[in-house]
Amino acid sequence: MKHTLLLLIGIVLLMAPAQAQTDSTSAFNQLFGRDTTLRTKDQQLKLNMDATYDRPFLTANKMPVSVGGYLEANTQYMQTDGITEGLSFQARRMTIFLASSINRRIKFLSEIEFEDGTKEINIEFAAMDIELHPLVNLRGGIIMNPIGSFNQNHDGPKWEFIDRPLSSITIIPSTWSNVGFGLYGKKYTRDWVWAYEAYLTNGFDDQIIANNQNRTFLPATKANRDRFEESFNGVPLVTLKSAIKRRKIGEIGLSWMGGVFNKFQDDGLTLDKRRRVDVWALDFNTTLPMGTYINGELVWASIDVPATYTQQFGRMQQGGWVDIVQPLVRKRMLGWNKAVVNAALRVERVDYNVGTFAETGDPIRDDIWAIVPGISFRPSPTTVIRGNYRYHWQTDLLGNPPARTAGFQFGFSTYF
Questions:
Q1: Whole-angstrom Cα distance, residue 139 to residue 47?
Q2: In which domain, by residue range, is 112 found?
Q3: Number of domains composing the chain
Q4: Which superkingdom heads the taxonomic lineage of this protein's source (predicted)?
Q5: Can you tell me the mean pLDDT for 95-109?
Q6: How far apart are alpha carbons 216 and 182 in whole angstroms?
Q7: Residue 6 is part of a domain; what is its CATH number?
Q8: Separation in Å, CA 27 to CA 16, 34, 67, 83, 375
Q9: What pairing do the DSSP bridges indicate for beta strands 250-260 and 177-189?
């Protein structure tokens, strides 16, 4: 399967004549024509949901398929309480985009990711969109559940930080996608845009509590490859999101994802009650008049853990992060016309077990705080060279003195 996938991608790449890379908007227009959900005049009103198609593609005249992608690589030196494994180089991920205009107002896009070399190969998105009206678009296939902002808008070249936000990868499963279908749409009114997404997909399974993490851990369900061909319990996962944005002010989005995660019956025999998992997310972003970009996300998860499980399995989780990016220099540098140097800061926290011990009333801990200052250089908008200093402290379940981890990271990410 792995070799077949690589061969297919290679054939597509060889078929496409080399062309200069265009910006994401013109490439989108060349590929799909005028699209009412992402109009050129409304570029200031782009939302996180637009990240699915708002990417640079390589296009060729009369070719039915366009190709794009991005690469991330870095090095890091980290130590925890004075203990280090030394310097490591990492090939975090390479992602391939394949897109096509099938017919008027019918389009297809796929996103295939290779993580840690080829340790993991995932189809993160592979869906067909049919536009009936700007407010009613049908989408079906492998869908990226629109919970929060990062899950859809996760491409490495868009970020000044090497690591992904903790709450967006350990409470919300990172790049969480499933097979399903649904609707999405937009409405523009002068300086405002409102959008929604609503999907039914396959969902979680009991690995979120039966895993080797010894805690409630929603990303563990990504190990279930069968979710792309059948539901674990026959109950669909529902994902809803609504977002609104005003030009020159910013965007705010509210999303919810919920469903049953356990197998409550088998061949008509009742095994357990239906146990739910529900995730809520609030995301926001804005750009201040002096050019400062602020982006953040808050996440909450509620899990109906059986009473037979110990209190180390959290029934409520919460977390969040905020990024602040300040352009320091924006001018022609080293031959690049639109080079930018940015200073950046991320503050984040996750709490995997919100609550108190039944016996003593003391708080249950199992949480992480992190601060990540950084600096980046962008020779072009689609390429970033970045350096981060990461410092985080992790407290165990009982609230013992935290383990402190610190170190330097340096790397790059680029669309191609």
A1: 18
A2: 2-415
A3: 1
A4: Bacteria
A5: 93
A6: 29
A7: 2.40.160.10
A8: 15, 11, 10, 48, 29
A9: unpaired
